[in-house]
Amino acid sequence: MTKCMPGLLLLLVGAVALLASEPQTREGILRQFDPERGALSLITATGSISARLDPKATVTDKDGKTLADGLRSPLLHGAKVEIDASVSEGNFIVQSIRYLAAAPANPRMPPGRSYALPPLNSIGLKPLTDLSADDRYHDRDGGLYGGGMNEPSKPHADAAMQESARIVPRAADGQPSAEGKIVLISISMSNATQLFTTFKQKADADPQKSSSLMIVDCAQNREAMEQWAPPNARPWKEAERRLAAAGVSARQVQAAWIKLANVLPTGDFNLHTRKLRDDTLAVLQNVKAKFPNVRIVYLSSRTYAGYSNGILNPEPYAYESAFAVRDLITDQIAGKPELAYRGEATKVPLLLWGPYLWSDGVTPRKSDGLVWNREDFGADGTHPSDAGRMKGAGVMLGFFKTDPFAQPWFVAADKTRSAPKEEEPQPAPRLKPINEMTENDSYQMEVGGLYGAGQNDPPKVLVDAAKRESDQIVPRMGDGAPGTNGKIAVIAMSMSNAEQEFGAFQKLVLADDEVSPNVVVVNTAQGGRAMSAWATPRYRTFEIAEERLKQAGVTPRQVQVAWIKIPIELVQGRPVGSKDPQDLRENMKKVRADTKSVLNEAKSRYPNLRIAFLGSRTYGGYCSTDLNPEPYAYQSGFAARALILDQLKGDKSLNFDPARGAVMSPLLFWGPYLWADGLTPRSSDALQWERNDFGRDGIHPSARGEQKVAKMLLKFFKTEDSTKRWFLSTHK
Q1: What b/e string do you get for 45-58 counting C-beta neighbours within 10 Å, with b at 16 or more?
Q2: Average pLDDT for residues 118-136, to the nearest whole number?
């Protein structure tokens, strides 16, 4: 038996509590290990646990044999382990640790350094922006502002707009002046100063930045929230020096960005987030006292820290710092007196979320596809590399140029069209929806009509084929055999927008009594995974889809219908594989090839998949990034149409008819056509896309936008001849 030092703390950081006194078993990744400090952390699938290590605890290998060197064994660093723990007098006590699997190699750290940690491409946690009101982490729900909401409530938004209106150019004495300055500062530690200096460089070079705005980096190396908390602390003196060097005064400072972090955090979720919250509260009160004209403070949590190879601030501390931000903001909204932002009892400025910077490593987050790769960080895996600084600074610049409370003072008055107003779109492409184009209309030599030649109704040969395939869609048992108690699984294959929209559709189906009880909608669309990712095995999109099918109690042989939203994919604003960014036919080549590969793989994995309904993107004219603006959203409709026409012309890689040879694909059919020219209503159904149908980036749907697409999908499946026979329980 290997004995360990009495009192050694196992800081298993995170969110699940052991509620019973009987020993319970948990598995996770062992992180943050320094035997001299007694500091360790364990990340589990649902959070983590804080516990003490029993002096008599055993440490064994995966076969149950005593592990040489006990907790000091290098095998444990970053390893997957299993612990047994119980509760005694409110403390979680670990009786045993069992090594399960080795850590990946970390060539960046020298051998023998006891707290070296291997890089993790993902820790399996959802970004706060992706957590819903029903999700839980440490008994906390999702959303930046709680309740699954990523935007402030209307009363707080109204208050923020009032404070924003008071941010005007001011002279050195703080009085409004047309020749004065608006100063935006940063406050925090090394990561923040590295990010903010790059942000300042990008912003100062941006012609849309207001000439009245002065950006001054006051964040400093090694000065985290705990160091800024005392009002007479050294970093405040350095901040004053930097303002003076920039030729501005404390009374011209009117907005601040603070990135929350503490050095070497320890303790469980509640302990360390509470400390971070309280330290930051002291900082905020100092901000208001030292800079009386500060109206808004934007708060951000840390970026991803799964690549960290030390104990400075690893995961899940970086992830959990977001809850300290949210606690401060929600406490202010709730009226806590120490966070009062107006009236005689004012203590702090008004608080808002700044850019939310965390994503789960290489797993794209739903809202904007943000990922953090290993090369975005330096040797320690914590501080950003040049690439990481540029990425983070780009996120920040996009935020301040489009945030409704920052944009009025950040962007020059004559440049505000860069952030579209809610009541009007960006300069409209002035393009006709494909279903309104006739055979005499054309876009880059492509005539109108969903099925070409100005026709929006499918040709008879396709109608007949759709009827034959639809007749094959029947309830099936797990082995694929027909059965009255079987299921008809409907899935989605596409990226973040589709995942959001199909998730909303799934909820509508569950609540609709007219839908057949045999129909099971499974949301297998995945954030950041457009057609090229689905066609690339290393992204494991089909494996992830099958995991979701399993969770829904569905087998691959019960999958019979798919919805695929086709995008024109961009990298740094340029269509992938295209020599001419504007050329429609060039832009369609890769997505057509990728989608054909996806359809081939889908038919192989889901042998009873009969019909795939294709859709285009929604309007992209409000897009404030280079993720998928116009005209590429519009062009996606032609890419979807091209695939359907390829199949009708007999493309062997898309053959669905066994009479013509090997079946390689499901039948392709138009689903609901989603594109409309912004606020210009479509003549067919008056569809239009307003600014508030989209989130902050102008490309991903807001809750309202999700509902709009979900209702179109539901109406389509309930009324289309090739679907209503099996989709509705009452259809004869």
Answers
A1: eebbbbbbbbeebb
A2: 86
